[in-house]
Amino acid sequence: MLKKVLVANRGEIALRVIRACKELGIRAVAVYSTTDRDTLPVLLADEAICIGPPRPMESYLDTRSILSATIITNSDAIHPGYGFLAENADFAGICEEHNIKFIGPTSEMIRKMGDKIEAKRIMKEAGVPTIPGSDGLVEDVNMAVKLCKKIGYPVIIKATAGGGGKGMRIARDRDELKTSFEMARVEAKNAFGNDGVYIEKYIRNPRHVEIQLLGDGKGNVIHLGERDCSIQRRHQKLIEESPSPAVNEKTRKKIGEDAAKGAAKIDYEGVGTIEFLLDSDGKFYFMEMNTRIQVEHPVTEIVVDMDLVKEQLKIAGGDNLPSRQEDIRIRGHAIECRINAEDPYHDFAPRPGTITAFHPPGGPGVRVDTHAYTGYNIPPYYDSMIAKLICHGRDREEALARMKRALDEFIIEGVPTTIPFHKKVMRDPRFISGEVDTSFLDDFEME
Ligand code: MV4
Protein backbone atom coordinates (compact mmCIF):
# COMPACT_ATOMS: atom_id res chain seq x y z
CA MET A 1 0.00 0.00 0.00
CA LEU A 2 1.12 3.56 -0.70
CA LYS A 3 2.24 5.55 2.36
CA LYS A 4 2.42 9.11 1.08
CA VAL A 5 0.91 10.65 -2.04
CA LEU A 6 1.71 14.03 -3.56
CA VAL A 7 -1.34 15.56 -5.20
CA ALA A 8 -0.14 17.37 -8.33
CA ASN A 9 -3.28 19.40 -8.89
CA ARG A 10 -5.54 22.06 -7.38
CA GLY A 11 -9.19 22.83 -6.77
CA GLU A 12 -11.96 20.30 -6.31
CA ILE A 13 -10.00 17.33 -7.67
CA ALA A 14 -7.06 17.96 -5.33
CA LEU A 15 -9.54 18.00 -2.45
CA ARG A 16 -11.23 14.85 -3.77
CA VAL A 17 -7.88 12.98 -3.86
CA ILE A 18 -6.85 14.21 -0.38
CA ARG A 19 -10.16 12.95 1.04
CA ALA A 20 -9.65 9.52 -0.54
CA CYS A 21 -6.08 9.35 0.86
CA LYS A 22 -7.35 10.15 4.36
CA GLU A 23 -9.95 7.40 4.23
CA LEU A 24 -7.25 4.91 3.26
CA GLY A 25 -4.75 6.07 5.89
CA ILE A 26 -2.38 7.45 3.24
CA ARG A 27 -0.59 10.75 3.98
CA ALA A 28 -1.44 13.45 1.44
CA VAL A 29 0.84 16.26 0.32
CA ALA A 30 -0.70 19.28 -1.40
CA VAL A 31 1.24 21.46 -3.82
CA TYR A 32 0.12 25.01 -4.53
CA SER A 33 0.96 28.06 -6.58
CA THR A 34 1.27 31.35 -4.67
CA THR A 35 -2.28 32.33 -5.64
CA ASP A 36 -3.68 29.07 -4.19
CA ARG A 37 -2.11 29.47 -0.73
CA ASP A 38 -5.46 29.97 1.07
CA THR A 39 -7.33 27.03 -0.42
CA LEU A 40 -8.97 23.95 1.07
CA PRO A 41 -6.55 21.38 -0.40
CA VAL A 42 -3.66 23.22 1.32
CA LEU A 43 -5.59 23.37 4.58
CA LEU A 44 -6.76 19.75 4.60
CA ALA A 45 -3.61 17.97 3.37
CA ASP A 46 -1.10 16.59 5.89
CA GLU A 47 1.60 18.76 4.34
CA ALA A 48 1.63 21.51 1.75
CA ILE A 49 4.42 22.87 -0.37
CA CYS A 50 4.57 25.90 -2.64
CA ILE A 51 5.68 25.06 -6.19
CA GLY A 52 5.79 28.47 -7.84
CA PRO A 53 3.94 31.45 -9.27
CA PRO A 54 0.31 31.37 -10.51
CA ARG A 55 0.93 30.67 -14.18
CA PRO A 56 0.48 26.89 -14.77
CA MET A 57 3.75 26.60 -16.75
CA GLU A 58 5.60 27.84 -13.67
CA SER A 59 3.77 25.68 -11.10
CA TYR A 60 1.27 22.87 -11.81
CA LEU A 61 2.92 22.10 -15.17
CA ASP A 62 6.49 22.58 -13.95
CA THR A 63 7.69 18.99 -13.73
CA ARG A 64 10.93 19.96 -11.98
CA SER A 65 9.13 21.80 -9.16
CA ILE A 66 6.72 18.93 -8.73
CA LEU A 67 9.44 16.29 -8.70
CA SER A 68 11.47 18.35 -6.20
CA ALA A 69 8.40 18.62 -3.97
CA THR A 70 7.91 14.84 -4.23
CA ILE A 71 11.51 14.13 -3.23
CA ILE A 72 11.66 16.76 -0.43
CA THR A 73 8.47 15.39 1.16
CA ASN A 74 9.55 11.76 0.71
CA SER A 75 6.32 10.94 -1.13
CA ASP A 76 6.18 7.57 -2.85
CA ALA A 77 3.56 8.43 -5.46
CA ILE A 78 2.05 11.30 -7.46
CA HIS A 79 -1.66 11.64 -8.16
CA PRO A 80 -2.02 13.93 -11.19
CA GLY A 81 -5.82 14.43 -11.04
CA TYR A 82 -7.18 15.59 -14.43
CA GLY A 83 -5.72 18.20 -16.76
CA PHE A 84 -2.18 19.52 -16.10
CA LEU A 85 0.21 16.50 -16.14
CA ALA A 86 -2.43 13.76 -16.04
CA GLU A 87 -1.87 12.54 -19.62
CA ASN A 88 1.73 13.60 -20.08
CA ALA A 89 3.59 10.41 -21.08
CA ASP A 90 7.01 12.05 -20.66
CA PHE A 91 6.19 13.05 -17.09
CA ALA A 92 4.90 9.54 -16.27
CA GLY A 93 8.15 8.20 -17.80
CA ILE A 94 10.31 10.42 -15.57
CA CYS A 95 8.36 9.20 -12.53
CA GLU A 96 9.02 5.58 -13.58
CA GLU A 97 12.75 6.27 -13.94
CA HIS A 98 12.86 7.71 -10.41
CA ASN A 99 10.79 5.00 -8.75
CA ILE A 100 7.96 7.37 -8.02
CA LYS A 101 4.60 5.71 -8.64
CA PHE A 102 2.61 7.75 -11.16
CA ILE A 103 -1.00 7.01 -10.18
CA GLY A 104 -2.37 5.97 -13.53
CA PRO A 105 -1.30 3.74 -16.38
CA THR A 106 2.30 3.36 -17.56
CA SER A 107 3.93 6.02 -19.75
CA GLU A 108 3.75 3.54 -22.64
CA MET A 109 -0.04 3.19 -22.32
CA ILE A 110 -0.46 6.99 -22.11
CA ARG A 111 1.73 7.43 -25.20
CA LYS A 112 -0.17 4.80 -27.20
CA MET A 113 -3.59 6.23 -26.37
CA GLY A 114 -2.33 9.80 -26.93
CA ASP A 115 -1.49 8.93 -30.53
CA LYS A 116 -5.01 8.79 -31.96
CA ILE A 117 -4.04 6.69 -35.00
CA GLU A 118 -2.21 4.17 -32.84
CA ALA A 119 -5.12 4.05 -30.36
CA LYS A 120 -7.60 3.42 -33.18
CA ARG A 121 -5.38 0.68 -34.65
CA ILE A 122 -5.16 -1.10 -31.26
CA MET A 123 -8.92 -0.89 -30.71
CA LYS A 124 -9.66 -2.16 -34.22
CA GLU A 125 -7.30 -5.08 -33.64
CA ALA A 126 -9.09 -5.85 -30.37
CA GLY A 127 -12.40 -6.03 -32.24
CA VAL A 128 -13.83 -2.69 -31.08
CA PRO A 129 -15.95 -0.96 -33.78
CA THR A 130 -14.12 2.00 -35.34
CA ILE A 131 -15.30 4.68 -37.75
CA PRO A 132 -14.62 3.90 -41.45
CA GLY A 133 -11.77 6.01 -42.79
CA SER A 134 -8.09 6.08 -43.59
CA ASP A 135 -5.87 3.24 -42.54
CA GLY A 136 -3.47 5.42 -40.55
CA LEU A 137 -1.86 8.66 -41.71
CA VAL A 138 -3.05 10.48 -44.82
CA GLU A 139 0.19 11.69 -46.40
CA ASP A 140 -1.04 14.21 -48.97
CA VAL A 141 -4.08 15.80 -50.54
CA ASN A 142 -4.16 13.37 -53.49
CA MET A 143 -4.35 10.44 -51.13
CA ALA A 144 -7.10 12.29 -49.21
CA VAL A 145 -9.17 12.90 -52.37
CA LYS A 146 -8.91 9.26 -53.46
CA LEU A 147 -9.89 7.95 -50.04
CA CYS A 148 -12.87 10.29 -49.62
CA LYS A 149 -14.22 9.31 -53.04
CA LYS A 150 -14.36 5.79 -51.64
CA ILE A 151 -15.79 6.49 -48.14
CA GLY A 152 -18.11 9.32 -49.28
CA TYR A 153 -18.70 12.81 -47.91
CA PRO A 154 -18.95 14.42 -45.41
CA VAL A 155 -15.61 13.51 -43.85
CA ILE A 156 -13.69 14.71 -40.82
CA ILE A 157 -9.93 15.34 -40.74
CA LYS A 158 -8.35 14.78 -37.34
CA ALA A 159 -4.86 15.35 -35.97
CA THR A 160 -3.22 12.17 -34.70
CA ALA A 161 -1.71 14.21 -31.84
CA GLY A 162 -5.08 15.92 -31.17
CA GLY A 163 -8.03 14.77 -29.14
CA GLY A 164 -10.81 16.36 -27.17
CA GLY A 165 -11.93 18.22 -30.28
CA LYS A 166 -8.63 19.99 -30.95
CA GLY A 167 -7.35 19.92 -34.52
CA MET A 168 -10.47 18.75 -36.38
CA ARG A 169 -11.98 19.93 -39.68
CA ILE A 170 -15.05 18.82 -41.57
CA ALA A 171 -15.22 18.65 -45.37
CA ARG A 172 -18.54 18.29 -47.24
CA ASP A 173 -17.12 17.85 -50.74
CA ARG A 174 -13.92 17.52 -52.78
CA ASP A 175 -13.25 21.26 -52.96
CA GLU A 176 -13.66 21.70 -49.21
CA LEU A 177 -11.44 18.71 -48.63
CA LYS A 178 -8.58 20.24 -50.59
CA THR A 179 -8.52 23.43 -48.51
CA SER A 180 -9.47 21.79 -45.19
CA PHE A 181 -6.79 19.15 -45.55
CA GLU A 182 -3.98 21.68 -45.83
CA MET A 183 -5.46 23.83 -43.07
CA ALA A 184 -5.79 20.84 -40.77
CA ARG A 185 -2.11 19.97 -41.32
CA VAL A 186 -0.92 23.51 -40.57
CA GLU A 187 -3.14 23.73 -37.48
CA ALA A 188 -1.90 20.36 -36.24
CA LYS A 189 1.73 21.37 -36.79
CA ASN A 190 1.22 24.65 -34.89
CA ALA A 191 -0.82 23.17 -32.04
CA PHE A 192 1.02 19.88 -31.45
CA GLY A 193 4.32 20.11 -33.37
CA ASN A 194 3.09 17.10 -35.38
CA ASP A 195 1.28 17.54 -38.71
CA GLY A 196 0.06 13.95 -38.94
CA VAL A 197 -3.65 13.75 -39.81
CA TYR A 198 -6.15 10.99 -40.54
CA ILE A 199 -9.61 10.98 -42.06
CA GLU A 200 -12.93 9.45 -41.03
CA LYS A 201 -16.46 9.43 -42.35
CA TYR A 202 -18.24 12.28 -40.53
CA ILE A 203 -21.08 11.13 -38.28
CA ARG A 204 -23.77 13.82 -38.02
CA ASN A 205 -25.08 14.78 -34.58
CA PRO A 206 -23.83 11.79 -32.63
CA ARG A 207 -24.21 11.22 -28.92
CA HIS A 208 -21.11 11.12 -26.75
CA VAL A 209 -21.23 7.96 -24.66
CA GLU A 210 -18.22 6.84 -22.63
CA ILE A 211 -17.45 3.71 -20.65
CA GLN A 212 -15.74 3.81 -17.25
CA LEU A 213 -13.08 1.14 -16.95
CA LEU A 214 -10.90 -0.24 -14.18
CA GLY A 215 -7.83 -2.34 -14.95
CA ASP A 216 -5.28 -4.08 -12.73
CA GLY A 217 -2.36 -3.82 -15.19
CA LYS A 218 -2.26 -7.62 -15.47
CA GLY A 219 -4.87 -8.02 -18.20
CA ASN A 220 -7.99 -7.89 -16.04
CA VAL A 221 -10.39 -5.05 -16.86
CA ILE A 222 -13.94 -4.43 -15.64
CA HIS A 223 -16.43 -1.95 -17.05
CA LEU A 224 -18.63 0.22 -14.83
CA GLY A 225 -21.38 1.29 -17.18
CA GLU A 226 -21.62 4.34 -19.38
CA ARG A 227 -21.96 8.09 -19.06
CA ASP A 228 -23.82 10.22 -21.56
CA CYS A 229 -21.89 13.47 -22.06
CA SER A 230 -23.71 14.77 -25.12
CA ILE A 231 -24.39 18.20 -23.58
CA GLN A 232 -21.19 20.01 -24.44
CA ARG A 233 -20.22 23.45 -25.63
CA ARG A 234 -17.05 23.88 -27.67
CA HIS A 235 -15.90 20.45 -26.47
CA GLN A 236 -16.44 21.45 -22.83
CA LYS A 237 -18.86 19.09 -21.11
CA LEU A 238 -21.52 20.83 -19.04
CA ILE A 239 -23.89 18.02 -18.02
CA GLU A 240 -23.21 14.30 -17.69
CA GLU A 241 -25.41 11.42 -16.60
CA SER A 242 -25.34 7.70 -15.97
CA PRO A 243 -26.86 5.54 -17.30
CA SER A 244 -27.39 7.03 -20.77
CA PRO A 245 -31.07 7.42 -21.67
CA ALA A 246 -30.11 6.38 -25.24
CA VAL A 247 -28.55 3.01 -24.43
CA ASN A 248 -30.62 -0.18 -24.12
CA GLU A 249 -29.59 -3.27 -22.13
CA LYS A 250 -28.28 -5.09 -25.18
CA THR A 251 -26.11 -2.18 -26.34
CA ARG A 252 -24.97 -1.52 -22.75
CA LYS A 253 -23.62 -5.04 -22.46
CA LYS A 254 -21.91 -4.96 -25.87
CA ILE A 255 -20.35 -1.51 -25.55
CA GLY A 256 -19.09 -2.31 -22.03
CA GLU A 257 -17.60 -5.62 -23.10
CA ASP A 258 -15.99 -4.07 -26.18
CA ALA A 259 -14.46 -1.24 -24.13
CA ALA A 260 -13.08 -3.69 -21.56
CA LYS A 261 -11.68 -5.84 -24.37
CA GLY A 262 -9.95 -2.81 -25.88
CA ALA A 263 -8.38 -1.78 -22.57
CA ALA A 264 -7.37 -5.37 -21.78
CA LYS A 265 -5.50 -5.45 -25.11
CA ILE A 266 -2.89 -3.10 -23.59
CA ASP A 267 -3.12 -4.58 -20.05
CA TYR A 268 -4.56 -1.28 -18.91
CA GLU A 269 -3.85 -0.20 -15.33
CA GLY A 270 -5.99 2.10 -13.20
CA VAL A 271 -9.13 4.03 -14.08
CA GLY A 272 -9.70 4.94 -17.70
CA THR A 273 -12.47 5.85 -20.07
CA ILE A 274 -13.19 4.86 -23.63
CA GLU A 275 -15.26 7.44 -25.49
CA PHE A 276 -17.68 6.32 -28.18
CA LEU A 277 -19.82 8.08 -30.73
CA LEU A 278 -23.35 6.71 -30.83
CA ASP A 279 -25.08 7.39 -34.15
CA SER A 280 -28.82 7.87 -34.73
CA ASP A 281 -29.19 4.14 -35.58
CA GLY A 282 -27.81 3.21 -32.16
CA LYS A 283 -24.48 1.98 -33.58
CA PHE A 284 -21.39 2.88 -31.57
CA TYR A 285 -17.81 3.55 -32.64
CA PHE A 286 -14.55 4.03 -30.73
CA MET A 287 -13.52 7.70 -30.56
CA GLU A 288 -10.66 7.98 -28.07
CA MET A 289 -9.39 6.76 -24.71
CA ASN A 290 -8.78 8.97 -21.69
CA THR A 291 -6.10 7.60 -19.39
CA ARG A 292 -7.06 9.68 -16.33
CA ILE A 293 -9.77 10.12 -13.69
CA GLN A 294 -12.35 12.38 -15.31
CA VAL A 295 -14.31 15.36 -14.00
CA GLU A 296 -17.57 13.43 -14.39
CA HIS A 297 -16.47 10.31 -12.47
CA PRO A 298 -18.97 10.90 -9.59
CA VAL A 299 -22.04 9.94 -11.66
CA THR A 300 -20.49 6.49 -12.13
CA GLU A 301 -19.45 6.29 -8.47
CA ILE A 302 -23.07 6.78 -7.45
CA VAL A 303 -24.68 4.25 -9.78
CA VAL A 304 -22.10 1.51 -9.11
CA ASP A 305 -21.56 2.44 -5.42
CA MET A 306 -17.78 2.61 -5.64
CA ASP A 307 -15.12 5.21 -4.78
CA LEU A 308 -13.09 5.44 -7.99
CA VAL A 309 -10.32 7.59 -6.49
CA LYS A 310 -9.83 5.09 -3.66
CA GLU A 311 -9.71 2.34 -6.29
CA GLN A 312 -7.03 4.29 -8.17
CA LEU A 313 -4.93 4.52 -5.00
CA LYS A 314 -5.44 0.84 -4.13
CA ILE A 315 -4.54 -0.38 -7.62
CA ALA A 316 -1.44 1.86 -7.62
CA GLY A 317 -0.49 0.19 -4.33
CA GLY A 318 -0.73 -3.25 -5.94
CA ASP A 319 -4.27 -4.31 -4.98
CA ASN A 320 -6.48 -6.46 -7.16
CA LEU A 321 -9.70 -5.20 -8.76
CA PRO A 322 -12.43 -4.64 -6.13
CA SER A 323 -15.13 -6.74 -7.84
CA ARG A 324 -15.72 -9.23 -10.57
CA GLN A 325 -17.64 -8.05 -13.61
CA GLU A 326 -20.63 -10.23 -12.74
CA ASP A 327 -20.93 -8.47 -9.35
CA ILE A 328 -21.19 -4.97 -10.87
CA ARG A 329 -24.76 -3.62 -10.73
CA ILE A 330 -25.99 -0.29 -12.08
CA ARG A 331 -28.56 1.09 -9.63
CA GLY A 332 -30.63 4.23 -10.10
CA HIS A 333 -29.64 7.30 -12.04
CA ALA A 334 -27.19 10.17 -11.49
CA ILE A 335 -26.83 13.56 -13.19
CA GLU A 336 -23.98 16.04 -12.83
CA CYS A 337 -24.11 19.77 -13.58
CA ARG A 338 -20.81 21.62 -13.81
CA ILE A 339 -21.03 24.96 -12.00
CA ASN A 340 -18.54 27.31 -13.65
CA ALA A 341 -17.75 30.94 -12.85
CA GLU A 342 -18.88 31.92 -16.33
CA ASP A 343 -21.59 34.22 -17.61
CA PRO A 344 -24.07 32.08 -19.58
CA TYR A 345 -25.78 35.27 -20.82
CA HIS A 346 -22.51 36.47 -22.38
CA ASP A 347 -21.22 33.50 -24.35
CA PHE A 348 -20.05 31.70 -21.19
CA ALA A 349 -17.21 34.19 -20.69
CA PRO A 350 -15.09 33.26 -17.64
CA ARG A 351 -15.68 35.60 -14.71
CA PRO A 352 -13.05 35.16 -12.00
CA GLY A 353 -13.52 37.10 -8.76
CA THR A 354 -14.47 36.75 -5.12
CA ILE A 355 -17.40 34.61 -4.03
CA THR A 356 -19.23 36.78 -1.48
CA ALA A 357 -21.78 34.12 -0.49
CA PHE A 358 -21.68 30.36 -0.98
CA HIS A 359 -24.48 28.11 0.23
CA PRO A 360 -24.50 24.66 -1.40
CA PRO A 361 -27.67 22.55 -1.49
CA GLY A 362 -28.15 19.39 0.56
CA GLY A 363 -30.71 16.78 1.45
CA PRO A 364 -31.37 13.32 -0.01
CA GLY A 365 -29.61 12.40 -3.22
CA VAL A 366 -27.41 15.50 -3.42
CA ARG A 367 -23.61 15.61 -3.60
CA VAL A 368 -21.51 18.74 -4.11
CA ASP A 369 -17.83 18.38 -4.99
CA THR A 370 -16.20 21.77 -4.55
CA HIS A 371 -13.24 23.64 -3.10
CA ALA A 372 -15.24 26.90 -2.94
CA TYR A 373 -16.41 28.74 0.19
CA THR A 374 -17.70 32.19 1.11
CA GLY A 375 -14.80 34.60 0.62
CA TYR A 376 -12.94 32.34 -1.84
CA ASN A 377 -11.25 34.22 -4.65
CA ILE A 378 -11.41 32.48 -8.03
CA PRO A 379 -8.09 33.18 -9.73
CA PRO A 380 -8.06 33.95 -13.47
CA TYR A 381 -5.24 31.52 -14.29
CA TYR A 382 -7.09 28.20 -14.22
CA ASP A 383 -10.27 26.39 -15.17
CA SER A 384 -13.48 28.22 -14.29
CA MET A 385 -15.21 25.19 -12.72
CA ILE A 386 -15.98 25.92 -9.06
CA ALA A 387 -18.34 23.07 -8.16
CA LYS A 388 -19.94 19.91 -9.42
CA LEU A 389 -23.52 19.30 -8.39
CA ILE A 390 -24.38 15.62 -8.59
CA CYS A 391 -27.91 14.40 -7.91
CA HIS A 392 -29.20 10.87 -7.89
CA GLY A 393 -32.46 9.05 -7.61
CA ARG A 394 -34.03 5.63 -8.10
CA ASP A 395 -34.72 6.64 -11.70
CA ARG A 396 -33.98 9.53 -14.09
CA GLU A 397 -37.17 11.34 -13.15
CA GLU A 398 -36.25 11.43 -9.47
CA ALA A 399 -32.65 12.46 -10.21
CA LEU A 400 -33.95 15.26 -12.42
CA ALA A 401 -36.47 16.47 -9.79
CA ARG A 402 -33.68 16.57 -7.21
CA MET A 403 -31.38 18.43 -9.60
CA LYS A 404 -34.05 21.08 -10.18
CA ARG A 405 -34.61 21.65 -6.48
CA ALA A 406 -30.86 21.54 -5.69
CA LEU A 407 -30.15 24.16 -8.37
CA ASP A 408 -32.89 26.31 -6.81
CA GLU A 409 -31.26 25.97 -3.37
CA PHE A 410 -27.72 26.71 -4.57
CA ILE A 411 -26.66 30.27 -3.68
CA ILE A 412 -23.47 31.71 -5.15
CA GLU A 413 -22.99 35.47 -5.01
CA GLY A 414 -20.19 37.73 -6.23
CA VAL A 415 -19.59 36.04 -9.58
CA PRO A 416 -21.97 34.92 -12.33
CA THR A 417 -22.27 31.14 -12.69
CA THR A 418 -23.72 28.53 -15.02
CA ILE A 419 -26.55 27.79 -12.52
CA PRO A 420 -29.20 29.71 -14.58
CA PHE A 421 -28.14 27.74 -17.67
CA HIS A 422 -28.59 24.42 -15.86
CA LYS A 423 -32.00 25.49 -14.51
CA LYS A 424 -33.08 26.17 -18.08
CA VAL A 425 -31.77 22.86 -19.44
CA MET A 426 -33.54 20.91 -16.65
CA ARG A 427 -36.83 22.39 -17.91
CA ASP A 428 -36.12 21.77 -21.62
CA PRO A 429 -38.52 19.18 -23.13
CA ARG A 430 -35.71 17.62 -25.19
CA PHE A 431 -33.55 17.15 -22.11
CA ILE A 432 -36.49 15.88 -20.05
CA SER A 433 -37.24 13.26 -22.72
CA GLY A 434 -33.55 12.28 -22.87
CA GLU A 435 -33.43 12.99 -26.61
CA VAL A 436 -30.14 14.90 -26.75
CA ASP A 437 -27.14 14.72 -29.02
CA THR A 438 -23.93 16.74 -29.34
CA SER A 439 -25.79 19.48 -31.27
CA PHE A 440 -28.15 20.17 -28.31
CA LEU A 441 -26.57 23.53 -27.44
CA ASP A 442 -26.15 24.75 -31.04
CA ASP A 443 -29.57 26.43 -31.00
CA PHE A 444 -30.00 26.84 -27.24
CA GLU A 445 -30.78 30.45 -26.33
CA MET A 446 -30.37 31.91 -22.83
CA GLU A 447 -32.53 34.97 -23.95
C1 MV4 B 1 -16.22 12.89 -34.78
C2 MV4 B 1 -17.50 13.43 -35.02
C3 MV4 B 1 -18.21 12.95 -36.09
N1 MV4 B 1 -17.69 12.01 -36.89
N2 MV4 B 1 -15.75 11.94 -35.61
C4 MV4 B 1 -15.09 15.70 -31.08
C5 MV4 B 1 -14.11 15.43 -30.00
C6 MV4 B 1 -13.16 14.43 -30.54
N3 MV4 B 1 -12.86 13.47 -29.53
C7 MV4 B 1 -13.87 13.81 -31.69
N4 MV4 B 1 -15.05 14.58 -31.94
C8 MV4 B 1 -15.89 14.25 -32.93
N5 MV4 B 1 -15.46 13.28 -33.76
C9 MV4 B 1 -16.46 11.53 -36.64
N6 MV4 B 1 -15.96 10.61 -37.46
C10 MV4 B 1 -17.97 14.42 -34.14
C11 MV4 B 1 -17.16 14.84 -33.11
C12 MV4 B 1 -17.74 15.89 -32.30
C13 MV4 B 1 -18.12 15.66 -30.98
C14 MV4 B 1 -17.95 14.43 -30.36
C15 MV4 B 1 -18.33 14.22 -29.07
C16 MV4 B 1 -18.92 15.24 -28.36
C17 MV4 B 1 -19.10 16.48 -28.92
C18 MV4 B 1 -18.70 16.70 -30.23
C19 MV4 B 1 -18.89 17.96 -30.80
C20 MV4 B 1 -18.48 18.17 -32.09
C21 MV4 B 1 -17.90 17.14 -32.83
Polypeptide structure, described:
- The chain is an alpha+beta fold.
- It has 3 domains: 100 residues, 3-Layer(aba) Sandwich (Rossmann fold), CATH 3.40.50.20; 70 residues, Dna Ligase, domain 1 (2-Layer Sandwich), CATH 3.30.1490.20; 237 residues, ATP-grasp fold, B domain (D-amino Acid Aminotransferase, Chain A, domain 1, 2-Layer Sandwich), CATH 3.30.470.20.
- It is built from 14 helices and 22 strands.
- The protein has an 8-stranded antiparallel β-sheet with strand order 13-12-9-10-11-14-21-19, sandwiched between helices.
- The radius of gyration is 22 Å and the shape is globular.
- The chain binds ligand MV4.
- The site of ligand MV4 has 17 residues, from strand 6, strand 8 and strand 13.
Summarize the structure.
The protein has helices at about 10-25, 40-45, 65-70, 90-95, 105-115, 115-125, 140-150, 175-190, 250-265, 295-305, 310-315, 395-410, 420-425, 430-435, and strands at about 5, 25-35, 45-50, 75-80, 100, 155-165, 165-170, 195-200, 205-215, 220-235, 235-240, 270-280, 285-290, 335-340, 340-345, 350, 355, 355-360, 365-370, 375-380, 385-395, 410-415. The protein has about 450 residues and is an alpha+beta fold.
SSE topology sketch:
Layout: E1 4-7, H1 11-23, E2 27-33, H2 40-44, E3 47-52, H3 63-72, E4 77-79, H4 89-97, E5 101-102, H5 107-114, H6 116-125, H7 141-151, E6 155-163, E7 166-171, H8 174-192, E8 197-201, E9 207-216, E10 221-233, E11 236-242, H9 249-265, E12 269-278, E13 284-290, H10 297-304, H11 308-316, E14 333-340, E15 342-343, E16 349-350, E17 353-354, E18 357-359, E19 366-370, E20 377-378, E21 385-393, H12 396-409, E22 411-413, H13 419-426, H14 429-433
Helix pairs in contact: 4-5, 7-8, 12-13
The structure holds ligand MV4.
Residues 131, 156, 163-165, 200-203, 206, 208, 232, 235, 277, 287-288, 438 line the site of ligand MV4.
